[in-house]
Amino acid sequence: MKIFCIGRNYVEHARELGNVIPTDPVIFMKPKNALLGSRAPFYYPAFSNELNYEAEIVLSVCKNGKYISKKQAYKYIDQVTLGIDFTARDIQNELKAKGLPWEKAKAWDNSALIGKWQPFHEEMLKSNINFSLEKNDETVQNGNSNDMIFPCDQLIAHISEYFSLNIGDLIFTGTPAGTGECSVGDILKGYLNNEKMFEVEIK
Questions:
Q1: What is the pLDDT of residues 25-57, one digit of tens each?
Q2: How far is residue 91 CA from its own chain's centroid?
Q3: Nearest to 150 by CA among 9, 15, 11
C-alpha cells in the first residue's frame, strides 16, 4: 500500500506558505506506517514544536492500473473520505532552507489520518465536494474540490504516468488555505459534505 500526497493543489494555500503556484501536480509519498490506525490515539511528535493540520479529500484506489486516462480515472476509485496530512512545519522549514528532502516532516509514523469511507461514484469528479475541519469546535478550514488546481481525474492520470496504482493505495489530494498549528489537548473534527468523518484528540 502506497500513500500518494499532492502538495500546493489550492492556490490560496500555496500563497499562504509563500510557494510558487505549480504548473504540474506536486507529488510526495508517505510509507504505509504513516497511516494512523482507526482506533489508535494520535500523539504529538516529540521531535517537533510546530505541528500543523492539513485537511484533505482522500481517495481509495480499487483497481490496479498504469497510464490511466482522465476519462477512465473514475473506474480506479471506489471510496472517498477526509483525512489530515499532519506536518511538522518547523522541521519542514529547516529542511527546505537547506535544500534537503522533507520526508522527516511529512512521512513519520502516524502522520496520515483518515476518516470513515463513503462510496465514490463518477459524478463526484464533476461535482463539488465540500469539506471542513474544526479545531475545538471552531471551523479552521473550508474547502471545495472545485477549487483544486488539478482535479481528481487529472491527479489519477498524472500519478499513473510515474507510478503504478494498486488496490489499497491512497491519494491525499491537497489542502486548502487555513492550515495552522495544533497543540496537545486540541480536538479536531473533519466533515465531508456536512457529514462527520473523524474526530481525534491530540495527546
A1: 999 999 999 999 988 899 999 999 999 999 999
A2: 18
A3: 9
CATH label, 3-201, candidates 3.20.20.10, 3.90.110.10, 3.90.850.10, 3.40.1190.20: 3.90.850.10
Domain ranges for the chain, please list them. 3-201
Q: pTM of the full predicted structure?
A: 0.94
In whole angstroms, give the CA distance from residue 163 to residue 161.
Answer: 6
Q: What is the pLDDT of residues 71-89, one digit of tens each?
A: 999 999 999 999 999 999 9
Show the cell assigned to 116.
Answer: 470513515
C-alpha 181/C-alpha 162 separation (Å) is 33
Question: What is the rounded distance in angstroms from the CA atom of residue 126 to the CA atom of residue 92?
Answer: 34
